[in-house]
Amino acid sequence: MSLYTRLEQRLERNSDDAGPVRGEFSLVRIGMIWLAANLVVTTLLTGTLFIPEVDYGLVILLIVVGTLIGAVVLVLVGNIGTRTGLPTMALTRGPFGTRGSLLPVTANVVILMGWSWVQAMLAGIALDFLVASVTGVSMPVLWAVVCQTIVVILAIFGHEGIARIEPWLAALMLAIMAYIFFVAFTTFTPAEYNAIPEAPTIYTPILVLDVVIATAISWTVLSADFNRFARDSKAGIIGSGIGYSLSTIISMALGATAFAFVILSGGEAIPFDPVSIIEPLGWPLAIVIFVSVMATNTMVVYGMVTTVVNAVPGTRVKFLPTALILGAISVIGATFFGLLNQFTTFLVTIGALFAPVFAIMIADYYIVKRGAYTPAILDARGGGRYWYLAGVNWAAVASWLVGAVLVYLWTYVWPTPIGATIPGFAVTFVLYLLLSLRERSKHPAEPSRHLSRTAEGVEDAPREARA
């Protein structure tokens, strides 16, 4: 029996790739997974975009406020995953329909692939800095490929491998980050950071808030993928809420502080350039960047695979070959370093595409469907509650298009005093509810139930059985 066959059989025996699962992870374990997930270089470097365009103290406040707002969306969507056992994109079949869900599913795969490329590139740059400082040889593209290859190998082992490695990576990164903060604030005082003159060009306080919220939206595409492994709603909501919020605030604040440190040190401060902040702070920051990508990109690649495997219920798309194909594409794409120059546009695109999707998902599950999805969500055949019209819920599609267009316009054409993400989310939420009033009235309230997979097929098991 070949190594490939043995690995495929092992993954099949411990499959978490298709259909609903029964969660067992504690609050602390979920929290550590999310804590490690967003202690990541992209979040850290996002903080470098805001200084000196906005006052340092205000930037830190906006990071905290925006993170907490975005975390509300993340935990609400993640809780649907905990209650149903389904990953995020599989849940889009509820509001969008069995076929209609392929629209957000396709967008999600493209977005996650872009995330994996960007993070692999940044890890390659950080690792190249470490190697070049010793050997004098610089090969960032090669190291990006090496980093992404390691990530793909880790992702193949699914949530079990992620759960085992994430807590250790989180502890390591937190320790090094604490050291970097210590160096930053023992070299310069908080008053000196606050005294850096503002030099606004692109970013305003509202745009900073929007970007921070968009970061949470970008992570929400994976919220149910991992929170479905929580043993109950309490573990999922509190664990992911605290883990995500702490990691984002720490990472973005570190990025803003490191960039301000470079300015105060008289160095060349280049936004979203890891080398410009690594050089004055040295190898500890380079290690944080490298390790963070190993933790986060593993989740991203795993999320891509899970999305494809769960795209159409009832299909026999297997985890391992899907992981190998998508992994190969992610490794090749990690060589396209030009994408780093488009990161801000990339974040705005995520917000425009997915803030409306999550508004629709939250409205549909908690209000329209009254907090319950039935086993019909796993049925690819025509008919049933999630078939709508030829497999598409046009009310959801229309609401999504309106919301996405409005977020784009309010970002680039008609900026609003409260940004684009919040009003876009609100308009989409209300519009979908108005278009779905008849749908809600047709279905009486149902008890919350968990969809579980059995040897005989899919059954509707009581939620209490998950304890």
From TrEMBL:
Residues 445-467 are annotated as: Disordered. Keywords: Membrane, Transmembrane, Transmembrane helix, Transport. GO terms for cellular component: plasma membrane. It comes from the Bacteria. Signal peptide: none annotated. The chain crosses the membrane at residues 32-51, 57-81, 102-125, 137-157, 169-190, 202-222, 242-263, 283-305, 317-340, 346-367, 387-410, 416-435. Its main location: membrane. It is found in: Membrane. The keyword Heme does not apply. Gene3D superfamilies: Hydantoin permease. It is a multi-pass membrane protein. GO terms for molecular function: cytosine transmembrane transporter activity. InterPro entries: CodB (IPR030191), Pur-cyt_permease (IPR001248), Pur-cyt_permease_Fcy2/21/22 (IPR026030). PANTHER family: CYTOSINE PERMEASE (PTHR30569:SF0), CYTOSINE TRANSPORTER CODB (PTHR30569). Belongs to the purine-cytosine permease (2.A.39) family. This is NCS1 nucleoside transporter family. The lineage of its organism: Bacteria, Bacillati, Actinomycetota, Actinomycetes, Micrococcales.
